[in-house]
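The methods section describes the discrete structure representation at length, but only in general terms. What matters is that the chain and its backbone geometry are given together, residue for residue. For illustration, here is how one protein appears when written out as sequence plus structure tokens:
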Amino acid sequence: MQYIGEISALAASACWVITALVLASAGRAVGATVVNAVRIFIAIFILCIIHWLAYGNVWPEISSSSLLFLAISGVVGLVIGDQFLYRALIDAGPSLTTLVMTITPALTAIIAFAVLNETLSYIDLLGMLLTMAGIAIAIISREGSDNKKKYPRVRIGILFAFLGSLGQAVGLVLAKLGMEVSDPEIVNTIHQSGVTPLSATYIRMCFGGVGAMVLLLMYIFAKRVKKANHCRVNFSVFFCILVGAIFGPVLGVWLGLISVDNMDTGIAATLMSLSPIMILPFAKIFEKEQITSKAVIGSFVSITGVAILLIN
């Protein structure tokens, strides 16, 4: 299918908008660690069922090399990177966090060049720069607005967002490595060149779940030491995490891996980074943030960059 990579990347970006909003709300109620762990466990359960229905088994047959890359990718991207990301959403808010995350495509392209030997044309670079510049313009405009919602630790939130961005970039490149490595004696009949995006997503999530469990146990222990008991997962919080799990680690990650499997990793990461543009109207409604004329201009700049990437 033509443009499958581009369409998947844009769809993944839309999924992350929903995830950012609902998990930011849940995270403020129970903490980033609980949210990160619960949404991964939910995702593993859903992906297990989907994988069984699609391929007839609950665990894919892949080479040890693919398994190693995907396992590390899951821990780095889904546990470490996302733990920082969700903490940043709580401390700095969705818009400022996604602003910092605009560096993810650049980091991904640099790492992909070094590890995967992927090179981009000047037109591709122009499209990426326009897209990232437009995102930055749109989100920076919030600094001059009179926002109604304040966040507790903006500076530390920015640092966490950067670390989350780095974790996502490394995780994405490792995931592509894992999908491209194949064993001649163990080849998926659906995807002859290596590991399918669905299987890769499932494996990453399983190993991410192990890391998330470790963090959750540490979190629970710390809470007991402090004798804190304010963390309660009620129905509304669980529903937010459930929605975030479906649109984030299931659909979002799956679509993202379909994208990187069908196009250059840096360009895929650029298209997947459009969440700050897509989130603007929702941030105004749910987070009470103002949309300025600069935000609109930034949106058009980003759309121009996307158009260049799609046409090239």
Remarks:
- The first helix runs from residue 4 to 30.
- The chain has one domain: 4-311.
- The CA atoms of residues 47 and 127 lie 34 Å apart.
